[in-house]
Design brief:
CATH architecture of the largest domain: 3-Layer(aba) Sandwich
Number of strands: 14
Radius of gyration: 22 Å
Oligomer: single chain
Strand content: 25-35%
Helix content: 25-40%
Shape: elongated
Order of helices and strands: EEHEHEHHEHEEEHHEHEEEEEH
CATH topology of the largest domain: Rossmann fold
Number of helices: 9
Distance between the termini: 39 Å
Strand order of the largest sheet: 1-4-3-2-5-6
Length: 307
């Protein structure tokens, strides 16, 4: 997949099939848009494109809106796995924020993307003050020579699937529901770092990664997890949090005990998929109490995964 990032100075050789949006989470509603774009692109032998944004600067967006279901890197990986040809990650600047809707169509959808097909959801908005919508895209399609395809939202349990819905479920620790909405397990990626190696002294060795500051995390606690290392799947139990029994740090870590695993993977990039919330993180009176609970957590998670 070609990745265009951090520049407004580009132009894709047209024509193209394009879908537009923030795509935070790349949930199953987003995946429906991408599948239609891929279908149109394949039929006409043209590139499939997703037009999205770099993260919004703090000067334009408050801190509490700076956490995302997928980081830029994670979103890129998911889109690549969905067989998109090109992802455009456009700089979200004050100038862009104030772009008139018709200028966005003329200068970007046509001028840069050379769209033959434009695929959007029913609630897609664009342009200054979000005045642009699917109806305007349809109207201008006749003038500029592209076809607009408006896609109804997917639903789960009678509710429309959206990034907001996914966020709500993640914040509640409802991993099963969040994973259904995402169409894949919620994941945290990171490079394995050396910790205090306390787990080894407790006969429960762990690997540690540290999530991006921009990553939206579920509640601190213990989770049954699947771990992907070099495209191989392993099972384990993960503590997400600050490890209050053994540390005064407020830094969030993702500490995972991988069942029946003893390889040295320091410096390796791994994926931790959170499958089920077991219990909240808590502070124990002693390391011995912590050890006992960690073994109980591991046994419970193992029963979930291994018959």
């Amino acid at each position: 997949m070609q990745y265009i990032h951090g520049t407004q100075d580009f132009e894709i050789d047209g024509p193209t099939a394009v879908t537009l949006g923030k795509f935070d989470g790349v949930h199953i509603g987003h995946q429906k848009l991408i599948s239609i774009v891929n279908e149109k692109a394949k039929k006409d032998g043209i590139p499939s494109v997703a037009f999205t944004f770099d993260h919004i600067p703090l000067s334009l967006c408050p801190q509490n809106f700076q956490h995302f279901i997928t980081t830029n890197t994670e979103r890129r990986k998911v889109m690549q796995d969905l067989d998109l040809d090109i992802e455009v990650e456009y700089p979200f600047t004050e100038e862009f924020l104030n772009t008139e809707a018709e200028d966005f169509i003329r200068n970007i959808i046509i001028g840069k993307l050379h769209a033959k097909y434009v695929v959007v959801g029913t609630d897609y908005r664009f342009g200054k003050n979000r005045v642009g919508d699917a109806e305007l895209l349809i109207q201008k399609g006749a003038e500029y020579g592209y076809e607009t395809i408006v896609v109804n939202k997917e639903k789960y349990q009678e509710r429309e699937i959206s990034s907001t819905y996914v966020r709500e479920e993640l914040r509640l620790g409802h991993m099963e529901t969040a994973n259904v909405l995402l169409g894949r397990p919620y994941s945290i990626y990171g490079i394995v770092s050396k910790g205090k190696q306390l787990g080894r002294t407790l006969d429960i060795p762990t690997v540690n990664i540290y999530p991006s500051d921009s990553k939206l995390l579920p509640p601190n606690g213990v989770y049954a997890a699947i771990i992907i290392i070099d495209d191989k799947k392993y099972y384990g139990v993960t503590n997400l949090g600050t490890r209050p029994t053994v540390s005064d740090s407020m830094s969030i870590s993702v500490e995972t005990h991988i069942f029946d695993f003893n390889q040295d993977i320091y410096g390796t990039n791994i994926e931790v998929q959170l499958m089920h919330f077991l219990r909240p993180e808590m502070k124990f009176q002693s390391v011995e109490e912590l050890q006992k609970q960690m073994k109980s957590d591991a046994d419970f998670a193992k029963e979930m995964f291994i018959p």
